[in-house]
Amino acid sequence: MTLESVRYSRGSLLVLDQLLLPQECRYEAVTSVRQAWEAIRAMKVRGAPAIAIVGCLSLAVELQAGAGGPGLEALVTFVQDSLNDLVTARPTAVNMAQAAREMSEVATREAGREGATEDAVRERLICWAEHMLEKDIKDNQSIGDLGAQHLLERVAPGGGQVTVLTHCNTGSLATAGYGTALGVIRSLHALGRLKHVFCTETRPNNQGARLTAYELVYENIPATLITDSMGATAMAHKDVKAVIVGADRVVANGDTANKVGTYQLAITAKYHGIPFYVAAPVSSCDLSLKTGQEIVIEERPSQELTSLGGTRIAAPGIGVWNPSFDVTPHELITGGIITERGVFSPKELQIALTS
Ligand code: MRU
Prior knowledge:
Layout: E1 6-9, E2 12-16, E3 27-29, H1 33-41, H2 48-64, H3 72-87, H4 95-112, H5 118-155, E4 162-166, H6 181-190, E5 194-200, H7 207-218, E6 223-226, H8 231-237, E7 240-245, E8 249-251, E9 256-259, H9 262-271, E10 276-279, E11 285-286, H10 303-306, E12 307-308, E13 311-312, E14 325-328, E15 336-339, E16 342-344, H11 346-354
Parallel strand pairs: 4-5, 4-7, 5-6, 7-10, 8-11, 10-15
Antiparallel strand pairs: 1-2, 2-3, 8-9, 9-14, 12-13, 15-16
Bound molecules: 5-S-methyl-1-O-phosphono-5-thio-D-ribulose.
């Protein structure tokens, strides 16, 4: 059985509470957009694709239960208000915003059709949200396969196994299944070409120690946990052949926002001549922004740094800065950007996605 961040059937949405992992594997019912917003904000569900999927499916559940309306105009307003609300839960990952734009367009278009009925529009919107789940898994499998193939051609053309390093959690728990950067690692493992993975603990929320480590152990993938500050020494001493991370937003020039700590890994990889890859679906690409400087970086509560598991670990009175993401400039993405449509250099990305 594979790990699932989300369990969905028409009218019912269950979300794995990732704050409880690895101690407890508990699913929580999400019956409204408001509940989804709270689960996303609290990081019970996290990871750019999973945030969008849970957001849209929570709306599908409300629509199935009859929310919105009566009347087409009221239904469309309800859908748009709900989507606008969901986008505010976490600002850096673009997937929810892209999905909101598309779902809102579907609502307007379907409601504008001659003879449109409330039931038909409702059904169309629910199907659209359900389709996201299937598409995300397929896209991740393509990312995994294309990424593994590219990486092996580049770093091990003569055959043999490779050791890689990853950051944060980009696996089944961050997506509808399989994962992006972790999907590439899964594909390498399936091909018998993965020697070892180093995963960083990913302070302050420990997505690496709690979630990636959990997924790797669950899948019997050979892996070792390191602290974030061990990235350079791991690259220097552990024969790391590539660094692969996910993305919350890739902009037109290839600059990429991802979990804080990604930037320093990219600098370190460049110093060591190790290719640095970003694996992300097209839904994480935002060509409306020219450079990474335009990306809004979420800042999270200071308690994430000052406490661990409810126990205060920082000296009382100390000031705290807690940006949740950082931006890796495109020059440091030396391996490429792995999408479901192919692997592109940051320079090629915009043309590849618009042609
Ligand atoms: O704060 P999080 O846990 O939502 O951050 C997650 C990441 O930064 C991931 O690398 C990114 O969302 C890609 S998940 C496929």
